[in-house]
Amino acid sequence: MVFVRVENFLSKFKKLETKEGRENKVCEILKGSIPADGLKIAVRKKTIYFYDLSPAAKSEIFFKKEEILEKVKKVMKEAAPNEISFRKP
């Protein structure tokens, strides 16, 4: 039986992150921008979903939307979400 090295093949997938990893990374980026302590988010495809927020927190996020998306894009490059929604995913 011949053993084949799959190291090179698997190295392609090191850049991929799990769903929880993306959500945690986005939370870390947003900690300084948003004054919400119990931030509940979900990241699906290219959208960040914020839910269970007060109306004041929603309006603050809405006003800082471009700044937030720019910060996320700077850190996450091509895997960055490019939209924000306030509905549950």
Structural class of the secondary elements? alpha+beta
The profile of the biggest β sheet is: 3 strands, mixed
The total number of structural domains is 1
Uncertain ranges: none
Rg (C-alpha, Å): 17 Å
What is the 3D form? elongated
Number of strands: 3
Number of contiguous helices = 4
Mean pLDDT: 79
Give helix % range. Answer: 40-55%
Can you characterise this structure?
The protein has 89 residues and is α+β, with helices and mostly antiparallel strands. Helices cover 43% and strands 15% of the residues. The chain is built from four helices and three strands. Helix 2 crosses helix 4 (65-76).
Main attributes of the structure:
alpha+beta; 89 residues; 43% helix; 4 helices
Please render the helix and strand layout as text.
Blueprint: H1 7-11, H2 19-30, E1 40-44, E2 47-51, H3 55-63, H4 65-76, E3 83-85
Parallel strand pairs: 2-3
Antiparallel strand pairs: 1-2
Give a quick summary of the entry.
The protein is α+β, with helices and mostly antiparallel strands. Helix content is 43%, strand content 15%.
